[in-house]
């Protein structure tokens, strides 16, 4: 449930208006919320189009604010430093860069997502569907992605520079070898099916 | 020379041409060539026409704070003898993903003009610019004298571009790659330096993650006897570090690689003795994954340290305290908040000469964290370090009283950047807004040039800023203020304001338009997620033709809202390379 606070109005709407609280905080000035209803990708969302809080659709105004919602670009720490810290925390070797570019056929600009946020293919595909407002066809090992007219197929460029269909290799292997993603129109991707 | 002295000289030089012949241009140019500061040079160029000409012919370094404020052609026309260029591109909030990726600030058009007009260009320093591998290659082959490349917070390139630089720039002395969005395709670029190449003085590749050919690096460092800055990446081990230092004991700045390899006693002793030979070292960084037990190896090298960057080493308070006991001359310290208040107490006790402190959060996104630093740590530092003038402090709680104490102890702050990480959080003891904290800062610290505010703030904070912060040049505001009045106070009161960046504040058109005349004396204004509308922006654009007013709209937002606004002065006119998501009004 999202509300929009009208600052132009002199009536003390703030006293009666439903407000969005930021995680862990109480009485504070209202923050203008984004009108988008769909939840953003969780946690370390790199969404550039939403600079305010997003609340998931199912959130009841009376329940306490979700603890893990992120404000884009806050705290103000450079992406580079954030990524380094995350590597330090997990104690892994740095391996590949976690943010990969995502292009969608027909979209005016690219986005970036952090692959390490997801644990499985369904999570990733769901996030992509929400980010770009499209549907990805159903995956099957034998035939790749099934398409209806408007469906899309996710592909990625691997370390060798080849374009592969997302979903064939184990998730961990995919995360290590994926350099960038391209969401192709179903009609164009048909050639990959069944290969 | 102060500009007042220059103006006096003007009176004696102007008017008679007879007078002019006794002060030939060459002499004037020679004198002016000694001026380094670009602000002094700007003042000089305003004195009179002769001085303007002499200045433009003698200038060898040009600094462009906003790449869209001017075109490369205009720059080349005015300054014919440039050998060094510093360029800044995207608004600062692009570091925090608030600016779309293809926004612009591409260096290529500049390089094309420079190749034609400044074939002897030697230095290029870029910040927040987009640069492709093709551009890097073009740079490498177009400028035979090219010496120094510095890239900070840039993106669009990969290690292939670095390979081109290494391959072609025969006179390279500096390669400084810092905190960029670089596509790391592997470490083979380093092997591209030719066998006989030995002029490198600065090499910083800490940004990169993949393994480099250590053999090639070792030989390179061995050949480059003038190397004074070497910053390794995480893939370089302790043992490898020791081998490098043996060939480069003269280093003044060292960035280690990973500081956590399992060492035998002998290896540890070797490392320690090698480090003790590095008597010139004044800057130390890196220390990735530093293990406390190996830190003592650094002690002998710390006696002359003035800058210690531990912001990638998650040290505990005791480890830091022990290390700092060996760093009495420290002037600049960067740490992670894993050192906690106790670690900062040790800073106050051991570093009386400290001028700059930056405390970064190790877990910025975890709200449940109970450690990190608090107001107590900051206060402890202020008692022990009266010379402190630059601070960047990320914390989860603060009080008005603590800040008042801090600035009383350290009245010389020039840069005060306080980030209370929970947006809109009040003084945790009194539950009041943090207005009085920032009021104390601006009232006491008369030299304040840069301020970042946070916490729960009403318009009173901005009244204070407008009234007292007369030297303020840069102000960053987030989740603060109550009404347009706040922003109006700042625009009306801060006469030296150059950069204003605001996000998620209830400032609207009235506030935006109150700065109508002011924006031409500023570099730029950024407002995102505020209450500014498209109509407000259109009005601004209409009234002020010498400003570029750019709006970035977000998907699904109201037609009338101006989600992100970027306003800047420009003599280049509206830019032509804006992507479709950026509207120029």
User: Could you spell the SSE succession of chain A in H and E letters?
Assistant: HHEEHEEEEHEH
Distance between the termini of chain B: 42 Å
Rounded Rg of chain A = 20 Å
Mass-distribution shape of chain B = globular
Strand count, sense and barrel status of the largest sheet of chain B are: 21 strands, mixed
Cα radius of gyration of chain B in angstroms: 26 Å
Described by the principal axes of the CA atoms, the overall outline of chain A is globular
**Which two chains share the most extensive interface?**
A-B, 54 and 66 residues
The CA-CA distance between the termini of chain A, in Å, is 45 Å
* Share in helix of chain A: 10-25%
Walk me through the structure:
The complex is a heterodimer of chains A (about 200) and B (about 575). With about 200 residues, chain A is an alpha+beta fold. Chain A is built from five helices and seven strands. Chain A has helices spanning about 15, 80-90, 120-130, 170-175, 185-190; strands spanning about 100-105, 110-115, 140, 145, 150-155, 165, 180-185. In chain A, β5 and β6 (about 165) form a beta hairpin. Chain B is of the alpha/beta class and about 575 residues long. Helices cover about 35% and strands about 15% of the residues of chain B. In chain B, α12 links the parallel β10 (about 255) and β11. Chain B starts with a helix and ends with a strand. In chain B, about 45% of the residues are buried.
Question: Which properties best describe this structure?
Answer:
A: 195 residues; 20% helix; B: 585 residues; alpha/beta; two-stranded parallel ribbon; 23 strands
Question: How would you summarize the topology of this molecule?
Answer:
The complex is a heterodimer of chains A (195) and B (585).
Chain A: H1 13-16, H2 79-90, E1 99-104, E2 111-114, H3 121-132, E3 138-140, E4 144-146, E5 152-157, E6 163-165, H4 171-177, E7 180-185, H5 186-189
Parallel strand pairs in A: 1-7
Antiparallel strand pairs in A: 1-2, 3-4, 5-6, 5-7
Chain B: H1 3-13, H2 17-21, H3 25-32, H4 38-45, H5 49-58, E1 61-64, H6 72-78, E2 84-88, H7 108-117, E3 123-127, H8 133-142, E4 148-152, E5 155-158, H9 159-168, E6 174-178, E7 181-183, E8 202-204, H10 214-223, E9 229-231, H11 238-247, E10 253-255, H12 265-276, E11 283-285, E12 307-309, H13 317-324, E13 332-336, H14 340-350, E14 356-360, H15 375-384, E15 390-395, H16 400-409, E16 415-420, H17 435-444, E17 450-452, H18 459-468, E18 474-478, H19 484-493, E19 499-503, H20 509-514, E20 524-528, H21 534-543, E21 547-552, E22 564-569, E23 582-584
Parallel strand pairs in B: 1-2, 2-3, 3-4, 4-6, 5-7, 6-8, 8-9, 9-10, 10-11, 11-12, 12-13, 13-14, 14-15, 15-16, 16-17, 17-18, 18-19, 19-20
Antiparallel strand pairs in B: 20-22, 21-22, 21-23
């Amino acid at each position: 449930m999202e509300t929009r606070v009208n600052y132009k109005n002199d009536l003390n709407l703030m006293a009666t208006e439903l407000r969005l609280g930021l995680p862990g905080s109480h009485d504070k000035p209202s923050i203008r919320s984004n009108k988008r209803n769909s939840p953003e990708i969780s946690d370390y969302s790199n969404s550039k189009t939403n600079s305010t809080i997003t609340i998931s659709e199912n959130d009841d105004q009376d329940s306490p604010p979700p603890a893990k919602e992120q404000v884009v670009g806050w705290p103000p720490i450079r992406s580079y430093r954030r990524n380094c810290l995350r590597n330090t925390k997990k104690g892994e070797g740095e391996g590949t860069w976690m943010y990969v570019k995502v292009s969608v056929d027909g979209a005016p600009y690219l986005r970036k997502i952090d692959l390490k946020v997801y644990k499985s293919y369904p999570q990733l595909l769901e996030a992509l569907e929400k980010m770009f407002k499209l549907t990805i066809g159903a995956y099957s090992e034998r035939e790749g992605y099934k398409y209806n007219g408007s469906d899309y197929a996710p592909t990625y460029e691997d370390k060798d520079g080849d374009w592969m269909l997302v979903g064939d290799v184990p998730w961990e292997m995919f995360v290590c070898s994926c350099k960038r993603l391209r969401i192709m129109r179903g009609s164009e991707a048909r050639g990959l099916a069944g290969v | 020379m102060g500009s007042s002295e220059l103006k006096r000289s003007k009176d004696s030089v102007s008017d008679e041409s007879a007078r002019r012949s006794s002060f030939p241009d060459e002499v004037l140019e020679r004198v002016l060539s000694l001026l380094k500061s670009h602000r002094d040079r700007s003042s000089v160029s305003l004195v009179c026409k002769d001085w303007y000409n002499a200045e433009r012919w003698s200038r060898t370094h040009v600094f462009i704070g906003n790449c869209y404020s001017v075109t490369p052609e205009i720059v080349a026309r005015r300054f014919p003898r440039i050998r060094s260029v510093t360029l800044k591109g995207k608004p600062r909030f692009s570091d925090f993903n608030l600016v779309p990726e293809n926004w612009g600030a591409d260096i290529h058009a500049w390089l094309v003009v420079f190749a034609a007009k400044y074939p002897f260009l030697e230095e290029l320093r870029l910040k927040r610019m987009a640069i492709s591998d093709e551009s890097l290659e073009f740079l490498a082959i177009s400028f035979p004298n090219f010496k120094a490349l510095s890239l900070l917070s840039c993106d669009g390139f990969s290690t292939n571009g670095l390979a081109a630089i290494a391959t072609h720039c025969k006179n390279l002395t500096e390669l400084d790659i810092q905190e960029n969005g670089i596509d790391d395709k592997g470490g083979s670029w380093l092997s591209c330096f030719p066998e006989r190449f030995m002029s490198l003085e600065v090499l910083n590749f800490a940004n990169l993650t993949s393994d480099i050919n250590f053999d090639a690096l070792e030989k390179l460092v061995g050949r480059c006897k003038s190397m004074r800055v070497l910053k390794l990446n995480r893939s370089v081990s302790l043992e490898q570090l020791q081998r490098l230092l043996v060939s480069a004991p003269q280093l003044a700045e060292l960035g280690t690689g990973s500081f956590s390899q399992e060492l035998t006693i002998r290896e540890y002793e070797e490392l320690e003795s090698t480090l003790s030979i590095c008597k010139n070292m004044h800057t130390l960084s890196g220390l990735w994954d530093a293990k406390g037990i190996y830190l003592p190896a650094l002690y002998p090298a710390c006696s002359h340290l003035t800058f210690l960057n531990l912001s990638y080493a998650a040290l505990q308070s005791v480890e830091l305290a022990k290390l700092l006991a060996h760093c009495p001359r420290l002037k600049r310290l960067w740490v992670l908040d894993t050192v906690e208040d106790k670690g900062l107490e040790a800073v106050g006790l051991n570093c009386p000469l400290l001028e700059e402190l930056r405390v970064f959060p190790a877990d910025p996104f975890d709200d449940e964290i109970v450690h990190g630093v608090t107001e107590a740590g900051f206060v402890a530092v202020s008692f022990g370090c009266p010379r402190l003038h630059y601070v960047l402090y990320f914390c989860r709680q603060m009080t008005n009283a603590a800040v008042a104490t801090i600035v009383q102890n350290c009245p010389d702050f020039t840069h005060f950047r306080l980030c209370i990480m929970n947006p809109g959080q009040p003084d945790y003891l009194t539950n009041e807004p943090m207005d009085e904290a920032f009021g104390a800062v601006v009232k006491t610290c008369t030299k304040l040039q840069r301020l970042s505010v946070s916490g729960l703030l009403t318009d009173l904070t901005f009244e204070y800023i407008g009234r007292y912060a007369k030297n303020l040049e840069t102000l960053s505001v987030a989740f603060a203020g109550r009404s347009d009045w706040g922003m109006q106070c700042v625009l009306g009161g801060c006469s030296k304001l150059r950069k204003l960046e605001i996000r998620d504040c209830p400032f609207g058109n009235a506030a935006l338009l109150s700065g109508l005349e002011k924006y031409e004396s500023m570099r730029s204004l950024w407002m995102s997620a505020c209450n500014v509308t498209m109509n407000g922006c259109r009005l601004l654009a209409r009234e002020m033709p010498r400003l570029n007013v750019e709006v970035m709209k977000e998907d699904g937002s109201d037609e009338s809202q101006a989600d992100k606004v970027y306003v800047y002065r420009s003599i280049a006119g509206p830019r032509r390379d804006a992507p479709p998501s950026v509207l120029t009004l």
